[in-house]
Amino acid sequence: MFCNGAVLTSDPRRPLARAVAVSNGSIVGLDDEALDWRSRGATEVDLGGGCLVPGFRDGHIHPLWGGVELGQAPLVGARSIAEIVDRVRAYAEANPGLEWIEGGGYDPSLLPAGIGEAATLDAAVRDRPVVLEASDHHTMWVNSEALRRAGIDGETPDPPLGRILRRGDGSPIGTLVEWDALAMMRRHIPPATLEERQEGLARAMRELARAGITWVQEASATLDDVDVYGAAARSGGLTSRVNIALRAEPSRWSRDRAGFVERRGELARAADSSEVLQAQTIKFFADGVIEMGTGYLLEPYDDAPHTCGLPNWSPEELSDAVTAFDADRFQIHIHAIGDGGVRMALDAIEAAAARNGPRDRRPVIAHTQVVQGVDRSRFASLGVIANFEPLWACLDPTMQELTLPRLGPARSALQYPIASIARAGARISFGSDWPVSSMHPLHGLAVAVTRQNRDGKPSGGWLPEERLPIAQALAAYTAGTAYQGFEDDRGGVIAEGRRADLCALSDDISAMAGLEIADVAVTGTWTGGREVHGS
Which residue among 167, 357, 362, 483 is buried most deeply as judged by most CB within 10 Å? Predict the structure, then answer.
């Protein structure tokens, strides 16, 4: 029984409570009904004047990938090119047996135009290949030995869905952009072993529990990844419930389709894990990212008037694939960054609904960065959930150094229209895209309500009309994401009969309206009433 703190339920019918009782993994009473459990000898959890919220639910995250990355060269938080080089050198020296040096999460805004030189990394490690992924994970910075091992030189053509950034003479600089170009390098890197992936997932689950997260949308997985999740589910190693989105690739989606359907059924029939693990979703990448010029725009980039970016699908191909998987009754989840990518995603979802007929499909467009006004009302009319990563909706270094110059003023003002899409009647959900950015929901909530960066700038918030009140922002991370996951009848709010997926916070965030939300501590996390993290 939880007491001595505010209970923020995310339930509009009963938004506040004083106490919560839990039995057999479910919520069995609120307020006086909860306090009555004292007479039954219930164990009390003292909230200490803080608050209890529904367990956070991340609507777009990569736990397996992020957990493996935690075991590589630690680049997150490096504040200069020199610091990145020093960290890579130290990691290589500490791991002399590694054939390849890998790392992820460096800030691309530290590099001129986001572009890294191979020679810079040669100064850290010359005799072994070095492969680093930027925080956006659409960009790879490599050293000369990595280019040599992969056979990438001035004669190597760009792949269909990627770019090898080059000098004027055609020689590779040391930066690769987007899926096919990264794959040219990845195919030469020894894959992570099963043990390394299992350890990575275990690390990720510990971090999710510490962040108060009890449900996640794994946003891009292969069938091999499903096996790693399945083993963790059978052993009781999942501290968070997981819905897996299987990745559809333009070159092979039709061949993968039957296998995806089969694996979804296997998980649904697995009585020992179906409560914590599902694979109900298909993931599409409509485009890339603005900061590297690969997000798909309706009009050319301001700093590159020869290109509108790099769509991964033609509109016809995306519509055909979305329609096919929608016919298989998968949920559709589309990464769309540029206004062209968002429109193409909306068009594909509209085509699938027209061809396959009405049903409760709850398609998701993730990131939803640049959205034209005429497309904002389409989210509600088509029943599309807008999944935002609220931490990005501020003037951080990537935004200021890379994104704004590429979009120009008019399109920059169209970014992350969270409140506008909500006001238009659409459902919204929140996520983190970790390891792209911090998984901690409290960090994202602080930006959602302020639209300020960590320095508190600008004073009134960036595009302040897109700020959310804290209750609505919290609901997007709880009830909104429960709706996304077809679990709105089981989770996302604190109410009788719902799962006891809960998070205790050190302070009452409902009384806060600023960046101090990011400093609140998670003091406890419970999944199905089982404590998976405690201070």
Answer: 483
